[in-house]
Structure formats: C-alpha cells, structure tokens
Amino acid sequence: MYADLSRLTFRSDRRYSAVVAQQGRVSLDADANEQTAIQLHQARTLAADLIGQHGGPSGDAGFHIRFKGGSRDLDDLIIEGGRYYVDGILCDATRPLPGAAVDDEAADGASGTEGEADPPEPDEPPATWTYWDQPDAYRDPERPGDRLPEQRPFLVALKVWERSVTAAEDPALREVALGSAMPDTAARVKVVWQVLPVESAALELENPGGASKEQVGKAFEAWARKATAPGSRLAARAERPEQADQDPCLVRPDARYRGPENQLYRVEIHEGGTAKEATFKWSRENGSVVFPVDELDGTWVELASLGSDDKLDLGVGDLVEFVDTAYTSRGEPLPLLRVEEADLPGRRVRLSGEPEPGVGRRPELRPFLRRWDHRETTRRPRKGAAARLKRGALKVEEGRWLPLEDGVEVYFAPDGAYRSGDHWLIPARTATGGVEWPVNAARKPLLQAPAGIQAHYAPLAWVTAEQAELDLRMVFGPLAAPAPAADASALAAEAEAAAETRAREDTEPEA
C-alpha cells in the first residue's frame, strides 16, 4: 500500500495472535498495523476454511451474471447485487441507493410559482451494476480491448484485490478541524472487485463449446493459479559505497547504509513483461508523497500544495506519475513525467510532456501526482547496455546488484516474469547502518517474491451464446439450525415425571 509507514512487520509464519502494548513504551504505527493484519488474517482464514475458495450466502449470493447482447449496442453484463467471498475476502455488489434531498419549497411552505412547470423527476437509479459501469473497473467502450469477447464461449471472472486510499483520493478522510497546514491522518485499505472476461483460449480447454461445468471450473483453477503465481524475485542489501570517504561525517564511517534518516524504500515494477521489457521505479517514502491536482492546462499542472517541507516537496528534476482513481484501478502504466519548471507562488509545475488523454481530466476521479525518487544516471552506461530510463522508469537488469542510493542495492533474479504493480519494501535504518532484509546463515540476502499486489479470482459464469450463461458460483447455507429434539431416554424420563405429577394430584384430598 502507498502510505507513510515506518515498516510492515506482519508475518503469518510467526503465528502471532495479538500485539500486546507495554506501559511507558513508544507507540509505533507498525505495531497497530500488525494488530490489524493479525485480525484480518484470522478472520479471512476462518472464512476461507468454512466457505472454501469462493462462495456466497444462499439467501443473498451476489454477482449473478446475465449476458445482454444486442445488434446495435455493445454486449453487456448485468451484475446482480449481493455478497460473495473470494479467499475469505468479502465482496459486496449491492448498488447503493441515492439519498433523499430536502424539498426546499415544501419545507418553506411555498406552493411554487403559478404557471411554472414542475422540475422533471430524476431518473430512477438502476438496481444493479453492469459491465460498463461497475464501480472499480472503469471499462471504456471506445477501447476495443475493454469490450467483451466476440467469440463464444468465454468465462466471466471476479477479480479481487486491495489498494490503499489516502486523503488525496478521498478528501473526506481529512479532518478539516486540524487546519489546511496539517498533514493528513490515517489511510484506508479498500477491497476492489472487477468483473472481467477470460477468453476460452486462455483456459486451454480441448472442446470449449461442449465443456461441462466441472471441466470449466478445473480449467479456471489452473488458469488462476498461473495468473497469481509470483513470477519474479528480488533481494536487497546495503553496501558501503566506494565514494563513502568523500561524504561528510553525517553517519558512522563504517555504516553501509549512508542515508541520514530512516526510510522505507519501495521498489515497484512499472511496466511488466520479461526482463528485456520490464521497468521499475523506486521511492524512499514508500510512494506516499503525492500532490492533489486542482487544474490541468497542457503541460502546466496546478496543485493544492507543493509540499510541506524540503523532504516531501516537489522540485525541478523530480519524476512524477500522473494518477487518478481510474488509472490506479486499471493498472496500466503510463510514462513518467519530469518536472521542468516550478512556479512556487502559483503552486504550479510544468511537466516534460502533456499527460495522456485518459487520465486526470475528470475532477471526480481525484487526480494527483505521485513522486518517485529515482533519477537518470549520470554515469556512462556499460558497453552494449540500453539507456537507463525507458518512458521515465529504470530498466530491469537481472543477475547483478543495482544501486538505488546511499548504499542501498537491489538484485533481480534471472528469468523473471514481471507484472506491473509488483513491489518490495526495504526498511533502511541509521541505527544499524543497514537494511532490514531476510538473510541465510551466511548472512547472504534471500530472494523474496513481491509483497503485492495480491490478486484473487473466482469464476462467475460461462457464457455460451446470446442470452445463455452457465452459473459457476458456489453457495452456502447458514450454520444455525433449530435445537434438536431430545433423545428417546430423555423423552421417556419426561413422560414418567409427568405421570407421577398427575398421580400425586389425583391422590391429594380436595381442600
């Protein structure tokens, strides 16, 4: 998640069940966040154990899919409301109802202006989502790649993942009573669900047209395992740079990490693919330095603020990513841009290029700039090596240690398959002069799979022809049931006791 964190300490293999606060100790964000992670892990593990890989309650199972084909309009899917669990994660497809506004004329006792037509009643909002207006997918009918497959059959799947949300995207998270000069407070984590098609060719079915429900389900499971399996690994270390003796004595002379402050480095894949195609970017602040955009005019961007201090500001030469809610949800990277000029009084910056047409033009999607801290290298590249920056990001180089800054280095394992958004977190600490990274007995850094993004998938429907779909969802009933009747011996004892009571009443003399 993009948030201003010190580090993330939750590890499921440590089997911790709770975080215990101690009196008189410093309170850290990592401790509170680990307690949240422990509880979330326990709840989702329990739900997955009881429900299975996916399923919905029989009385209100969500995401029932109805295919809507048309000769003139684009094909569409109707997504019915309700709840569904994927790997224990709750997804809710219920469409929120609009609120009721106050009728000012009725409240004031006015009957309206004579002869003036009443305003038209607003259209009744739809009760369900569709493929084109689902809340976190942002499908575009103008993009052929977003349209439903013309070739049938195809599978409709539910993709689930989580992302962080800060006050830059949701201003309601900011407490205005703290004042505009104060930083924001806590961030949020949001469950994102997307209903997306999977072409039958990707499932590698021998006879897609005649496949049974069980065959489609097994083929989808194999596809989902491949889609979610980590394809790349990274290691990190801190090594004392050769030019460390030339630096002023701001840190210990023997320190391997030479930064003057504690940092949480984030190394993130920008464009995915093979090592020849993939690029990465990095941030010393976990990608949390963002600047909400007030207005975009060509290459000039007016910002709500240029930063609160010299560490979290925006200056000439910085590389930024123009982001909004749709861009984040789609996960399709665009070129990073460089800040060419800064107008401090006007809170404006001029970028090296105009942002792509599909991002930042809609204020309701909360556009903002995200700062990344890598720079184009000034040293001459190795013989035969390509330019270090590709569309503003660094090229992945496997099998060698790559320096970031202040002695921090990363290593990409050979033969990796990279996905946009995959990331690793590297805490760097001045007290130890190194980075926190798992090592083996010989103190060599271990290769680690990405910390995220963790996507989860579930099959929803198998669309075979127009107006025909096979429901692939699973349902479960409630565990509660009526209390069982007493066994035979208990019933006999009750009958005997009742008979004895009647006998006593018959023998007792009347008063």
Automatic annotation (TrEMBL):
Q: Where is the composition biased (Acidic residues)?
A: 115-124
According to the record, the residues making up region (Disordered) are: 100-149, 490-511
Q: Name one Pfam family in it.
A: DUF6519
Give start-end positions of Basic and acidic residues composition bias.
Answer: 136-149, 499-511
The highest taxon in the source lineage is Bacteria
What is the name listed in the Swiss-Prot or TrEMBL entry for this protein? Uncharacterized protein
